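thread: overnight batch results

M.L. [08:02]
morning all. the overnight job finished for the chain we discussed friday. pasting input first so we're all looking at the same thing
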Amino acid sequence: MITLIIIAITAIVSFMAFNNARLMNDLILWPPAITRSREYHRLVTYGVVHADFGHLLFNMITLFFFGRVMEGFFAAKLGTMGFALFYIVALVVSILPTYLSNKNNPNYRSLGASGAVSAVLFSYILLSPWSRIVVFVVPMPAIIYAVLYVVYSIYMDRRGQGNVNHSAHLWGAAFGVAFTLLIRPEVLSHFLSELSRPRF
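M.L. [08:03]
and the structure it wrote out:
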């Protein structure tokens, strides 16, 4: 239920912001607004607005399929709102390095839930590394996708080109792994055991 609520809020706000420049500007991550005006809400609200419908659709489809699984996992350990806590903290952690490196840059903006969605996805991969996921109609084991995703994100982040915040993807993925292991350390032994039994 929490996953569906997050998707609904994100979709509604994103659609509203598509046609409302003022709303978009009030919610997007614009570092000087935080540095100068203490608008700390932007460290979360940037995740409920998206650049376009395709950006929104990709993030929300990924969240729908993997969020429902992880919602139960976090609820069992942290209670009903456990997944909401995980998701909100993932939004903040995934964007924080970007904010810190651009805190006085008036030309920088970032938006989208990709960092938090990466956290959800990588948390799931810890639990089920050999499960099959479909990436742009190509099926592959989740752990293979994770490796390709990290390598690609590091490469693109170092190139520093384009409009995609690859740093947020990487920090989100790292947070997803770290937070999952923090609350359930035994997941690590499960993950390593699963890796030793490949299933393609």
